[in-house]
Amino acid sequence: MRLRAPVVPPRRRFDGPVTTIEARDLRKRYGRTVAVENLSFTVKPGVVTGFVGPNGAGKSTTLRLILGLDSPDAGCALIGGRPYRALRTPLRSVGALLDAGAVHPGRTAHDHLLWLAQSNGLPRRRVREVLDLVGLGSVARRRAGRFSLGMRQRLGIAGALLGDAPVLIFDEPVNGLDPDGVHWARHLLRGLAAEGRTVLVSSHLLSELADTAHHLIVIGRGRLLADASVADLLADASRRHGGQRPSLEQAYFDLTRAAVEYREAGSDAR
Ligand SMILES: Nc1ncnc2c1ncn2[C@@H]1O[C@H](COP(=O)(O)OP(=O)(O)OP(=O)(O)O)[C@@H](O)[C@H]1O
């Protein structure tokens, strides 16, 4: 089914607290596999920050550590200076889309969001608001099990927006969206940042972020490779390529070339 592209609402200045996401010397290993090693960065409000790296770089692990779904072996992850598990109203503090498939297939889109809203003390009216915002208003009473991948993705985005949080984290948000949907999602993410929110978007495909992100955090083999604005990354790459104008993709390949293989603990003396 083809959904009408939802209208991105006019910008409003977000008047909630200014909040950052911080990773401080994060380390996580699974057996001999290094997932994340000495990883530190700060994600600031007002811009879309892309979180990129090759497959197996440690992006999902980092997001799970930030969202308190896993515990680090060392270091810490903070949202507004607190670990996720210490947040008193988590969904009002941080909205996240990690796995769009994590919806009971027998529940309607409306009931899924209502359940989320009620279990987080959020007003019922937010359900209708976010359904309209993501363009699912007309299929609100349809069971999520009958949704296409793109519709499930929109439902996941709706869940992340439910708490009107100052911090938003999206893992592969355009996965399964058609070109209209991708265009809409880009505007949505940029709009949320323009409202003054902190927006972190993870992807293993730079092309998905090239027109969206203002700033990039690049990781490979669990380590930080770059934490810079898109403009600075392009300027650096241009210097490396003798003044030519390389694409952002070329800049990314330069950074990640040596980091595309998985690594076991102790197998690399870097
Ligand atoms: N629960 C786990 N048990 C064992 N190894 C794990 C576990 N979770 C992640 N890993 C390993 O940690 C490394 C980092 O994985 P992670 O999923 O965080 O990377 P990613 O950057 O999200 O990759 P992708 O882009 O493919 O989703 C990989 O080598 C992965 O196999």
From TrEMBL:
Keywords assigned: ATP-binding, Nucleotide-binding, Transport
SUPFAM superfamilies assigned to the protein according to its UniProt record, in alphabetical order: P-loop containing nucleoside triphosphate hydrolases
Annotated InterPro entries: AAA+_ATPase (IPR003593), ABC_transporter-like_ATP-bd (IPR003439), ABC_transporter-like_CS (IPR017871), P-loop_NTPase (IPR027417)
Keyword Transport tagged: yes
The organism's place on the tree of life at top rank: Bacteria
Gene3D superfamilies on file: P-loop containing nucleotide triphosphate hydrolases
Transmembrane intervals: none
Pfam families on file: ABC_tran (PF00005)
SMART domains on file: AAA
MF annotations from Gene Ontology: ATP binding; ATP hydrolysis activity
Domain ABC transporter: 21-246
Family: Belongs to the ABC transporter superfamily.
Name of the protein: ABC-2 type transport system ATP-binding protein
